[in-house]
What we know:
By secondary structure, the chain is mainly β. It has a single domain, classed as Maltoporin, Chain A, CATH 2.40.170. The strands form six sheets. It has a 22-stranded antiparallel barrel. It has a five-stranded mixed β-sheet with strand order 3-8-9-6-7. The longest helix is centred in the N-terminal third of the chain and has 15 residues, at about 5-20. The two termini are about 45 Å apart. GO terms for molecular function: siderophore uptake transmembrane transporter activity.
Amino acid sequence: MKKNIYTPIAIALLAMGHAGFAQDSSRVSQLNTVVVTATKFAKKQSETGKVLTVIGREQIERNIGRSVSDVLNEQAGIVINGVGSNPGKNKELYFRGATSQYTTILLDGIPAADATGLTGNAIDLRFMPVDLIERIEILRGTQSTLYGADAIAGVINIITKKGGAKPISGFGNLTWGSNRSLKGTVGLRGHQENVDYNVSFTHFETDGISEAAPHDTVTNPQFDRDGYKQNAVMVNLGIQATEHLKLQPFFVYSDYKSSYDGGPFVDALKNTNKSDLIHTGIRGIYDLNGKGEVRANFGYQKVTRVDESQWGVLPLDGRSYFADVYGHYSINEWFQVLAGVEYRKAELIDTVNFLVNKFSARTQFNTSPYVSVFIKNLHGFSFEAGGRYTLHSKFGNNFTYSLNPSYLVADKLKLFVNVSSGFKAPTLTALYASYGDENLKAEKATSYEAGFQTFLIKDKLDLRVVGFKRDIKDVIAYIGNKYMNFNKQNDKGIEVELAVHPAKGLDVKVFYAYVEGQVTTRAGTKDTTYNNLVRRPNHSGGLNIAYQVLPKVFVSTNIRQVGTRNDLYFPPWPNPSQNVELKAYTIWDMYAEYRFSDNGRLFFNANNITNNKKYWEIYGYSVQGFNMQAGISFSL
């Protein structure tokens, strides 16, 4: 697919929308959608200039047979590398061209961190079955003032399922799929007097495909399959302790075991990885008579990994601690204030000489007070200004800020600007592993963002256009088997999202994202600058068409286009690394469901319908051709 295809797609959608607008009065405008991630408390999207996307419950439920990586991969500006590969393959999150270490992932507002450093500090997406999720809020741009370190590219808030309306009800699903895949979820939820609850268990297993691709299908036509197994348990409780105080204890356990190969084009028979996550804590909410709230959160994560290969056994143990107390209050109908203080600690336990100092534990921690003020829709004008002061155990004191004015014109056009700064400390792995550097500097970012969102033709057309620029000083990268600081990283891009509701039951969405990035580093006595977005396309886009054919029958189709990228290929030693260009590719998926009752449905996913196997996500690693999942979902 050529790059200029997105222009005719947009024109065609506009024409199709114009032809059908008189048929129905439904709205696609999300101005009145209430979100929590943009400001850390409930607020309508019309009252904030933050760029936020909500993936709602219905969309989540229509991805039960897939993964959370599949869901995120269909959003503008996000590329999940490895989503079409073997299920056990690492899922590399790229958000606006930045690697996963620059994205904060929250579980119900609490950072889900991974101190082992496998994916920076972000939690491994393989730990989170989509079955546990109620909705996802995606907040774009640097958000370090509200969400602290790592929130340089954006924030993804995964909101899990909570209690039901009845005293007790059961729910579940069962899915069969290609490559001998089986996934099932069963759970109970309910509400009784002052207590609500949701308890669920998910199991998933598949034979998978070979992780590595055969280099020569004539002399080595077949590698063995690399299987994957996962179990996950979630417990969410809500206790209305007093009229104003609610307590929400939570517990998530997830583990997976995967087989993996020896590298690009290299098969292996005995390589295995076993990873476990414990995420637990409590949230407290105290209502201030409708004028605001005080919230207190505590979270603890433990991630353990045991990697067995021909090189031996490598166990890792990472612990993360998080505590946060903040409150927001409405001074009057248009002025609000939020203030809080946060504490974080990361600890990496060394058991097999992984760290520079043998058999030791390494930690870092920080405390950071923060404050934000909000003007809410004062004659169409909204504004947020905030600051955070971080006191870090190794990297001293740092100040970050956020300025976010927006203006709403006649409920039809929202103009917005964001200027913000960010601070990110190196991970414990980057500092203290044998290939790390204790002298690394912390990274500091400045981001600029501007755009508009408009609602046209009786609110049946929603168009959002955003441009952004992100500059990072002392950016950290892994080069030549060593972590090091570069001088700076400069990224910029644009995102266009269009949603159209041309007729009753029919929704069409299209997006296009462009990003480019350059790193500047010292070469001898001079600076050198070059493009460095490895595995990240300059151009990406997608088209989704959803249609409620009959009251009980729903169908949708999704086309995802990923442009050309570069990759680094590391052939067997002593051959030098090679820069490889990966060609653009297109993936076409379809979904259908039949609701046989108000609480039950049959569903079918068909992925990569054209059976495209002639593309690379990661050079030397296999991708799945046509694959499918079919199943049943129910509640009692």
